[in-house]
Model the fold of this input.
Amino acid sequence: MSTLLIRGGRVISPEDGIDDELDVWVEDGVIRLIDRQISTPADETLDAHKQIVSPGFIDLHVHFREPGGEVSETIKTGIEAAVAGGFTAVCPMPNTRPVNDSPELTRFMVEQARHIGLARVFPIAAATLQSEGAQVTDFAALAAAGAVAFSDDGRPIKTASLMRQALDRAGALGLPIIDHCEDPALSAGGIINQGPIAEKLGLPGIPNESEDACVARDLALAAETGAPLHLAHLSTAGAIQMVREAKRNGVRVTCEVTPHHFTLTEKAVEEYGANAKMNPPLRSAKDRDAILEGIADGTVDVIATDHAPHAPKLKSKSIAAASFGVIGLETALGLAIAQLVDPGRISLVRLIELLSSRPARIIRQPSGRLRIGEAADITIFDPRREWTYHAEAGKSKSRNSPFDGWKLKGAVTATLVSGKIVYRRADQSTTPLPVEPAQKKKQAQP
Ligand SMILES: [Zn+2]
Done:
């Protein structure tokens, strides 16, 4: 038996109503006790004084590019970036090459992750074959292989009738459809947000209505079917307002926003060029403020990164030619504390809810909480720690971030999956964590 003690941290688990200075005792990867000053000696002790002990973060929206785009990211490098950012579980989107529309590929991703042994991977399988929007995939077989939701991310589910069929079938399994809301005809050829910056730079714009029209369509169908719908990376004031009203009317809808959309506006394009190009695009200050309001009032359920790595050759082009997307796993916490918690927009408890318990409930996994008898997936972070992000020093294989060189606040100090320390911050100057105990542990596993 191996034992681990996390000592002296502020333990927060929103779903369990825990927010107190407590110790956490882990045996063979499972939480066995959460109490004041546990004095039993453990094989390993983590000193968490002045730090937050949180349920492991879960990212509902990442792109790991394997198979087919390994030049930009692999499951391994993606997972390494995830645990460095405090994420104990991630949901890779299906727009790989080939598209993940099969139980075989879904199983491959889960098994790769298990073999790598760091974070958990819960694949989101394609909602339609090859995400082409002609025929829905075999949801039951995909779910049996490990898929936790269905999406054609990168593009919306093509037609309203397909969307209704997908909602019906996924709803019968109790799983959500995740939609990337965009009207491809309205946004066709668009590079950045339609507005003053696009005009100034002479670039074709992507209008808010492209997202709003698709959100309206999806909400109508979610209301009609009663099936769970999750809206990815919302970027417009209109979309946030529609979700707010739909929730009030009892529609089973949840939504996520990204750190780049709650931090930046379209103005960032002038400074960061292609590293501020993503889909949906950075919008106006009015849209950004609406997102912040949605985070504060509970309309927004989840912070997801939409981590979208691209090798330099795909990004170091003119902004018009560069690929859409930015990486985000390693900067999410630092941006969220700097932009949301520090200015007093939300509490740390609410932030942890956005990063752990809410996403866990959406994909129906028994995580995102700190509960006796459950796996010790835990993120320990220092909310006051300031640090500078250098994309070059990141774990992701790609460097396409507008936040390169930014000073962030809030640093992950250790990430645990099933009680195993899968990441530990190298520079522990302010609060050193003790190293392995002197005596050798028995390697026998039950
Ligand atoms: Zn998307």
Notes: The pocket of zinc ion is lined by residues 153-154, 180, 232-233 (CB under 6 Å). Residues 208 and 236 are 6 Å apart (CA to CA). Residues 56-362 form a domain with the TIM Barrel fold (CATH 3.20.20.140). Residues 429-446 have pLDDT under 50 and may be disordered.
